[in-house]
Amino acid sequence: MDDGRNARSVDILSINPNEYNSKAVGGNEFLNPITCSNSDRVKVFGRGKNNVFINGGFFNSSGAYKNHSKSTPIGPTRTEQSSSFIPTPDRYKDCFGKLNFDDDSYISSAPLLSVMGQMVFDGSKLSENRFNYDAVRQGELQLFPGDLYHSSDPNPRAGISFPEKTSMMIDKNRARQNRIRLVAVLASGRGENSNGFTMPEFSSLMARLDRMNISPGESYNLDGGGSVIMGITDHGGNIVFRVAQENERGRDSSTMIVYNFRGK
User: Fold this and answer.
1) 102 vs 15, 181, 205, CA distance in Å?
2) In this structure, is residue 219 part of a structural domain?
3) For residues 200 and 141, what is the distance between their CA atoms, to the nearest angstrom?
4) Where are the alpha helices (H) located in 148-234, listed in sequence order?
């Protein structure tokens, strides 16, 4: 994609929900899925033939919430490893949603980007101070993890698109199917001169992907910036595909979303 800010890198993994089980993992400590050992990847992601992963929601990366560890997620979270979380910021409570997975785990993230194939975070949102980075840039506000001031500036982004839940499972022989799509947008950096996506631009992209499903559901923004990381491991924990914002080596993440192939 090219809008005058140089070509953008958009990677998409399309997952058939008939063939994969989903779960959220982590939240109790940091994990860098690129630099950790194969045994650690097997322990956290699983031993499926294919294990697809993407970074989860926001976390206390800057340590701004002094009474919590830096790996603590923002918003209600439950994984096999942890159920601790920091409450969502008051000014964004209406933006956060809960992402539920097959093993009854869940994470929180924001904002909602599209519903039934229609973008819901359009350019008019940027007139609200809570979605505009200018006040932060001018030193008038302190930025906390989970804040969405970055919506107005181009950034690396990550997102997830779900089909409509009641029709997620469909005939595998149909030419067009409902798919879960994981999206990673890599960029030259963050801020006004980045070739990444503003949140309205990302909302538009995710809505277009939603419409590829027979029954579009909804899509959410995930943690972005240097946290963007997505990939696939095999049954032995070997990485067979990866994209990462931080020089292809990724950085420490808190929660991750994982899809394990059911077959052999």
Assistant:
1) 14, 16, 26
2) yes
3) 22
4) 199-210
Distance in angstroms (rounded) separating the CA atoms of residues 262 and 229: 23
The count of structural domains within the chain is 1
In a domain, 3, yes or no: no
- Residue 97 belongs to what domain range? 9-246
Which segments of the chain are extended strands (E)?
A: 9-15, 20-31, 51-55, 97-100, 106-109, 112-115, 118-119, 157-163, 180-186, 216-222, 229-233, 239-244, 253-261
Residue 162 within any structural domain of the chain:
yes
In a domain, 49, yes or no: yes
46, 21 contact by CB (below 8 A)? no
Rounded distance, CA 167 to CA 210, Å? 14
Residue 176: how many other CB atoms lie within 10 Å: 9
Give per-residue pLDDT as tens, 50-80: 999 999 999 999 999 999 999 999 999 999 9
For 153-204, the pLDDT digits (tens) are: 999 999 999 999 755 555 555 556 899 999 999 998 777 778 899 999 999 9
pLDDT the model gives residue 230? 96
Q: Are residues 114 and 218 in contact, defined by beta-carbon separation less than 8 angstroms?
A: yes
pTM above 0.85, yes or no: yes
Helical H segments across 1-80, by residue range: 38-45
